[in-house]
Here is the input.
Amino acid sequence: MLKRNQLSIRTIVAIGIGAAVFIILAKFAAIPSPVPNTSIQTSYAFLALMAVVFGPIAGGLIGLIGHALNDAISYGSVWWSWVVVSMIVGLLIGLASKKIDIESGIFNTKKIITFNVVQVIAQGIGWFLIAPALDILIYAEPANKVFLQGLFAGVSNMVTVGVIGTLLLAGYAKTRSRSNSLTREL
Amino acid sequence: MAVEMLAYIDRKSPIHQLTGVSKLICFIVWSSAAMLTYDTRILAFLFIFSIVIFIVSKIKVSEVSFVLIFILVFLFINNLAIYLFSPQEGVKIYGSSHVLIEIAGRYDVTIEQIFYQCNVTLKYFAVIPVALLFIVTTHPSEFAASLNKIGVSYRISYAVALALRYIPDVQRDFRTIALSQQARGIDMSKKEKLPIRIKNAASIIFPLILSSLDKIETISNAMELRGFGKGNKRTWYSARPFQTGDYVTLVVFGIIFVTAMVVTFHDGNRFYNPFES
Here is the structure.
């Protein structure tokens, strides 16, 4: 008998596959941006989608596992301060999954606004507060440097998730069949 | 698109023979020690000791050099940024100021600043060899088993195992989709205008996400049919029993960790201050 508080099999698999897709998107699907040497990370838009579809636990763990493994296999060391932020962003966006209820197939203006308000708040907390705070605590780096870094990462991720994340959610909602969507042929 | 990734390198060495569990514990202990301390003597010791471990492991530097180059570039930029934003951070931390080269006002080069930035760099250097070794000497499926053994729930360990298992699959899917979309004239590179570029990226990501969601359904059905998650525990095919070497290693790392913490915090400050007489 499965207890209520345990992860369902579907969530476990979603975490695993989600983390793998997160890593591939972070490595290959970065869009070159107009600012030199920076790119737009599409992986956070995907993280937002997974968090909305599968809920806060899946969102948080995809962020944690995906970011930690990606750091490990591509840079050889893990920047824990930023990994924690990915986890928190996934978790916080996931908290809105019930409210948005993407499985209903309806993703109207009201829900788009809800999603964007939530993602901006979640990323604001993550990139503007937690990331710099952890950088100072662990690495004792200068405060103004890490806050500027956080600001830059945060704003660009907010824009990416706002644009691509919304596009992805709208596309996903279209693949869900709505209730009462059948019409009777006369 | 062939971006290199770190992967398991099979070899016969004392490091490879250690069980995944003890390597995982050592890695965690080591990173926490390097994270907590700012004592130059401890960091230098950790760095030298990690080089020794690296030599014992018989991994060649050329096998991981692509990562090393990346890290060195990153550290260089990071150091530059620290100096640009806070050229007197060292003075603030060590409470004294010995000007070496006068440039202009706050950008004067002080010995304290140089010492502080050496410490920041050393902090990264102390972790990198051990982290690299942990990744290239631990087999992915043993890694998942080890996570479970140190107390992570087996469901989450299994999710990690799934992620590692499916990275190559997803990569192949991504490549196929990207190539077929490019064949249809969809461009994601700099040649296209930014709004169109974003729209084009979405048209590559979207099929990938949908096929991954399908995969999630298939795999979770297969796992459900095989009764995954019925029991409270689970055995792992690749888990290995502890040997003498594991106990010795764990004790040695434990001693290093405790010593590092005592030396760092005995005077109530995590920084080692050579400027204080």
